[in-house]
Design goal:
It is a single chain. The chain is of the alpha+beta class. The chain folds into two domains: 101 residues, Peroxidase, domain 1 (Orthogonal Bundle); 70 residues, no CATH class. It has eight helices and four strands, in the order ααααααβαβββα. Helix 1 runs antiparallel to helix 2. The longest helix has 20 residues. The chain starts with a helix and ends with a helix.
């Protein structure tokens, strides 16, 4: 995974810097997400792996599949990625771009998993507390997992807060080991 990030980072950074200079971060975000989704489609993936396809043919295939949803600059980006044989990195490029965009916007995505559904009020309160702790605008995504027994697990970037009963029991079991 670290190798993919290392290879994809220059492309993500170049796309981000260009989008930022054009004041078009959201449009590039949408285009990169689309390209990532298209390249992860099984049929497209099989077509792109055909050894007889040239870089130009691979780029044309992606551009044709995306249609008019890619502007000229994004099409040129696809051609550059294809010329360097990096089409398979488009999902990672998209992820890294989103990280750069979130850093620029001082925002972060937080995934909250709870044993039971959280009310809107609880989600708002949790988002405000996380915003204060992280110093960023927090976009919260909530899901449920009855296996937690009780409590919540929060993932925001590199930060993981395990306040679940299952997590506490695991800590207790580890502490009791000889």
């Amino acid at each position: 995974m670290a190798e993919l990030n290392t290879l994809a980072r220059p492309y993500a950074k170049a796309a981000f810097e260009f989008a930022q200079s054009q004041q078009n971060l959201t449009k590039w975000s949408e285009e990169l997400r689309l390209l990532a989704a298209v390249t992860q489609d099984e049929t497209v993936r099989q077509l792109l792996q055909q050894p007889q396809l040239t870089a130009d043919a691979k780029a044309k295939l992606l551009i044709d599949v995306c249609g008019d949803q890619l502007d000229v600059q994004a099409q040129n980006f696809v051609r550059t990625v294809a010329e360097n044989n990096r089409i398979d990195l488009l999902p990672t490029i998209s992820e890294l771009y989103e990280e750069l965009k979130a850093e620029q916007e001082r925002s972060i995505e937080a995934e909250v998993t709870s044993a039971f559904a959280l009310s809107d009020e609880q989600q708002d309160k949790l988002a405000k507390a996380l915003s204060a702790r992280l110093g960023r605008d927090v976009r919260l995504h909530a899901s449920e997992d009855a296996g937690l027994i009780g409590g919540v697990v929060i993932r925001a970037g590199d930060l993981v807060i395990d306040g679940s009963v299952r997590g506490k029991l695991a800590q207790l079991a580890e502490a009791l080991k000889p």
